[in-house]
Amino acid sequence: MIKILGRVLWIMLFVGLSLYAGSIESSVDSTEIERGDSVLFSITIIGEDSDPLPELKEIDGMKIEQITRNEGSEFVDVNGKSVMQHTRTITYEFKPKYNMTIPAFQVKVDGKIETSKAINLKIVEPIAGSKRKNKYFSLDMKLNKTKAYVGEAVVATVYFRQNMNIKLMELDYKKPPFSAFFSKQLEGEETYKEGVYTVHELKYLLIPKKEGTIAIEPATAKVAQRVQERQEGGWFANVPKWSNIASPSLKLEVLPAPSSYDLGGDFTLMSSIDKKEVKANKPVNVTIELKGEGSLEDFAGIEFEIPDVTVYSNDATIKSSYKDDKLISSYVQNFSFISDHDFTIPSKEIQVFNYKTGEIKHLKTEVYSVKIKGSEKVKKPISVVHTKNMVKKEIEEVEKVSILQKFENLPPTFLLLSLTFLLGAMSSFFILYLVKLFSSINRAKKHAFNGHEALQILYPHIGESAEVEFIVRQLYAIKNGEKKVKLDKELLKELLNRYKPKEQ
C-alpha cells in the first residue's frame, strides 16, 4: 500500500512538472510589412533555466538594426497551484527588403531542447498618405495652418491614442523626420482622456526652408501590448503582441517671402535705460525686449558698437509657448555701456514681415543721450589773433636772442667753467632721479595690482551687487587684452577691502 501511494505521488509530481515544462515562442509585430518599414521579431523563453538567448547580427541577410531585452518573473496558476514563472524576451529590429522566412530557433530550456516556429514575412507596397492603426492604438497628426511663408512658424501636433483597457508593454515611437523644415519639439506634453482612450499630445515647431508644396512624413510607432498565450501543458504566459501604427502624411503649401527682412511675425520692440547721468566709468544699463506672435529661433539678435565706449552684453533670453493656437515668443537682452565722457546710444531698427497682412513693419529702439559727471569737454582750436600781448611776447623773444648772442661773445675760460658747473649739477640731479625711480619701482612691486587675485576674491560675490559685477567684467576685459578698459581703481580697492578674507 505504501509503495502504491509512493508511485501515485511520484506520477503526480511528474505530471505537474511536465505541465510546467519550459518553452520558446517567436513572434513578429506584423507578417505584412510595408516596403521601407522595419519589423520587430521577438523570441520569448519561459522556464527556470535555459541556454543564453541567441545573439543575431542578421536574419536571412538582413542586418539587425537594434536589439532590446526584457526579463521578468511572476506567479502563475498551474492546476490550482501558484508556480513562479521566469520569462526572458529578446527583440530584433530589421528592415526586410523582400518576402522572406524567419527560421526556427532551438534553445535548451529546463534540460530539454525547445524549438520555435518559423515565420513568413510578406512585403506590401505602401499607400501614399495612408494612416495605419488598430482598434487599440492609433497615431494622428494635424497642422495649425495649411499655407505658410518661407520662415513662418507652423505647429504640428501628433496625437497618440491608447485604449485604457489594454496594457502597454513597450512603445517605440519615431517622430516625423521633418526633413524640409527647421524643427524643434515644444515643451509640455499633454495627456488627457477621450472616451475609452488616453491621448498623448506632442507639439513640434516647424520653420519651412523652401517654397512649394511640401510633403510632411508621418509619425510612426511600434506598440507591444501584454497578452496571455496558452503554452504547452495548458498554462498561460505573458508575451508581447506588436502592432505597427502610423499617422497620415500631410502637405503644406509654402509661399515665397519678401526679399529681405530681419524677422517674421507680429512683434513689438521696447527699450529702457536705468539712468542717463552717471559718474565716469560707471555702467549705464539698457534692456531690449522683443515680444509677440511668431518664432525667434533664427533671429540674429541686436548689437551695439560705439567708438571709445565699452559695451558688455549678456546672452539673450528667448522663450516660446504655444497658446490658443498661437506661438508666443519673447526676446530679452541686457547691455551695459561704460565711458569716461558723454556719449549717445543710437537707435536700432528691425524689419518685421507680418505674415497675416503681408506688410513689412519697421521697429526702432529709442535714442539715449548719456551725460558723464565731471567729464572733460573737448577743447576747440583757438584762432591766432595778433594782440598787444602777442607783440610783447615777440619783443621778449627778440631780447632772449640778444642775450644768447652776448653769451656767445664771452671769453672761452668763462665758458668752460660755466659748462663744468652745469654738467656737475645735471649729474647730481640725474643720480637723485635714479634713486627716486628705484624707490618708486620697489613700492610699485610691493603694492602691485594682481588682477587674478582680485578676480578670485570678487567673483564668488558677483551676484551680490551691480558694483561687483561691473568690476569683475572690467577685470575679465583687461585679462582678455582689451586696452580701452579703464579700471575704476578706487571702487576696486573699496570692494577688495570689503570682501577680502580677514587674516587670522
Q: How is this structure best summarized?
A:
This protein is an alpha+beta fold. It is built from 6 helices and 33 strands.
Name given to the CATH architecture of the largest domain: Sandwich
**Class from secondary-structure proportions:** alpha+beta
What is the mean predicted local confidence, pLDDT?
77
Class of the largest domain, according to the CATH hierarchy? Mainly Beta
Helix-strand blueprint:
Elements: H1 2-19, E1 23-28, E2 32-34, E3 39-46, E4 58-59, E5 62-63, E6 66-78, E7 81-94, E8 100-102, E9 106-109, E10 112-115, E11 119-124, E12 137-143, E13 147-149, E14 154-163, E15 168-174, E16 181-185, E17 190-194, E18 197-208, E19 212-216, E20 220-230, E21 236-246, E22 250-255, E23 263-264, E24 266-273, E25 277-279, E26 284-293, E27 310-313, E28 317-323, E29 326-338, E30 343-345, E31 349-353, E32 360-364, E33 368-373, H2 388-408, H3 412-446, H4 451-458, H5 466-479, H6 489-499
Helix pairs in contact: 4-5
List the keywords.
Immunoglobulin-like; 4 domains; alpha+beta; five-stranded antiparallel β-sheet; 504 residues
Describe this structure in words.
- The chain has four domains: 22-126, Sandwich (Immunoglobulin-like); 127-257, Immunoglobulin-like (Sandwich), CATH 2.60.40; 263-373, Sandwich (Immunoglobulin-like), CATH 2.60.40; 424-504, no CATH class.
- It is built from six helices and 33 strands.
- It has helices at 2-19, 388-408, 412-446, 451-458, 466-479, 489-499; strands at residues 23-28, 32-34, 39-46, 58-59, 62-63, 66-78, 81-94, 100-102, 106-109, 112-115, 119-124, 137-143, 147-149, 154-163, 168-174, 181-185, 190-194, 197-208, 212-216, 220-230, 236-246, 250-255, 263-264, 266-273, 277-279, 284-293, 310-313, 317-323, 326-338, 343-345, 349-353, 360-364, 368-373.
- The strands form ten sheets. Strands 12, 14, 16, 17 and 18 form a five-stranded antiparallel sheet that branches.
- Strand 17 and strand 18 form a beta hairpin.
- Helix 4 packs antiparallel against helix 5 (466-479).
- The protein is elongated.
